[in-house]
Design goal:
The chain has 275 residues and is of the alpha+beta class. Helices cover 51% and strands 17% of the residues. The chain has a six-stranded mixed β-sheet with strand order 1-2-3-7-9-8, with helices on both faces. The N and C termini lie far apart (53 Å).
């Protein structure tokens, strides 16, 4: 018998928010199992009490029924007093983050008509990059941070520091600058004098008055697209195509590795130098 195989020649590239979507699905499955486990323990305890009432091995059944009932009671109390609010908060944050990454991806779609290549959920050592954009204005590495807002909330960005609605989000600056360097390395651009990478923290739906800082930007998704469209070309067509080809090859290699092994790997890439 001939083994069947997928009709796809290449594994598809990750969708926007793929990592968050996977984390959200895993979290929801865990909550379903938790909700099923507690009733199962209760049913087992009831069975023991029923057998006890019917006169089966009274002493052992009494100990078993009492233990199962107490165990079920502890589980129910622990779940509803602690885990349920925590689980709901985590699910809310994951869903909010996923919606934010998809909103940013939707805004970036307009750049493709202007000669830009956009990829999402690129794997790097110790994590992932939400979005990478390359085109005439250069190479941009984006980290999306979706945060709830309220009337009067403001964004304050200073050198290396970021506060969103009064909360310290400076770790996002460190993260995106580190990821920008990692992407340059994966694309073989560390020694390039032509192609630089701009680190960008994207805050979907927030207004950022002045988010242009030395070494990084802080913008919402619409302001980022507008800024890129207004920038003069820094790369010619050949340079854009060379970097975009490397980026697409990296994404394809990661997708193939994930399809083969069931996990995401970042293969070594040693392309030739540009510039």
């Amino acid at each position: 018998m001939v083994a069947s195989r997928s009709p796809l020649r290449h594994a598809p590239a990750p969708l926007p928010g793929a990592s968050l979507a996977a984390a959200l699905e895993e979290h929801r499955q865990t909550q379903v199992l938790m909700r099923l486990y507690v009733p199962m323990v209760v049913v087992m305890a009831c069975k023991s009490w029923l057998l006890l009432a019917l006169g089966h091995s009274r002493l052992m059944l009494a100990i078993d029924a009492l233990g199962m009932t107490l165990f079920a009671g502890v589980l129910v109390a622990a779940y509803f007093l602690r885990h349920k609010p925590e689980a709901e908060r985590k699910e809310h944050n994951l869903a909010l983050g996923l919606a934010g990454e998809r909103a940013v991806a939707q805004a970036l779609e307009s750049l493709k008509a202007r000669g830009y290549t956009v990829v999402h959920d690129l794997k790097v050592p110790e994590g992932n990059v939400d979005h990478v954009v390359v085109g005439p204005a250069g190479l941009f590495v984006l980290e999306t941070k979706t945060r709830s807002r309220w009337p009067g909330a403001r964004v304050a960005a200073s050198e290396g520091r970021l506060r969103v609605g009064g909360r310290d989000e400076s770790a996002a600056v460190v993260q995106v600058r580190r990821n920008a360097s990692r992407v340059r390395g994966l694309l073989g651009l560390h020694d390039s004098t032509v192609v630089d990478s701009k680190a960008v923290v994207v805050l979907p739906g927030w207004y950022v008055g002045d988010g242009f800082r030395d070494g990084y930007w802080v913008l919402n998704e619409k302001a980022f697209v507008t800024k890129v469209c207004q920038m003069p070309a820094r790369l010619d067509r050949a340079e854009v195509d060379a970097v975009a080809q490397r980026l697409r090859a990296l994404v394809a290699a990661q997708a193939e590795a994930a399809a083969r092994l069931g996990q995401t790997l970042t293969p070594p890439v040693r392309p030739a130098r540009i510039g």
